[in-house]
Design a protein that fits this description.
Elements lengths: L3 H17 L3 H22 L16 H8 L4 H23 L7 H19 L4
Helix pairs in contact: 1-2, 1-5, 2-3, 2-4, 2-5, 3-4, 4-5
Length: 126
């Protein structure tokens, strides 16, 4: 059975593989999803409630949930929120703006951000 944790880990592995193959748009999408799943895992551990009886938070609200429900130090919470927001913006460009600027540097930064989010919420990264 898949869990948010397993989906996060497999998505980050896929993002790394896609990056190594030069598929930067797809790598960015998987990096974002890895972070999204890791955050959802953490939020569900905290028994967070989501609108409309969903079992995961709306994408646009994940960074707000990170800040409002986490017991982490304030500066770390805001660093995680910034990383997540960068991933979300990058994912929107990668998935919905064909002429948007996507390059190796952006994809590598997204991998790093996803790794940071995953490390904070799940422990070691994949």
């Amino acid at each position: 059975m898949d869990t948010w944790e397993n989906m996060s880990r497999s998505s980050l592995l896929a993002a790394k593989q896609l990056f190594n193959e030069g598929n930067y748009r797809s790598s960015i999408s998987r990096s974002y999803y890895a972070a999204c799943c890791a955050a959802t895992f953490e939020l569900n551990q905290r028994k967070s409630n989501y609108p409309n009886d969903r079992n995961n938070p709306p994408h646009a609200m994940i960074s707000q949930y990170i800040v409002s429900t986490s017991s982490r130090r304030r500066n770390l919470k805001y660093k995680l929120r910034k990383s997540f927001n960068t991933l979300l913006r990058s994912r929107i460009i990668a998935d919905y703006i064909p002429l948007g600027h996507i390059d190796q540097t952006l994809a590598l930064n997204c991998l790093r951000f996803a790794g940071q989010v995953q490390f904070e919420f799940l422990g070691e990264t994949t």
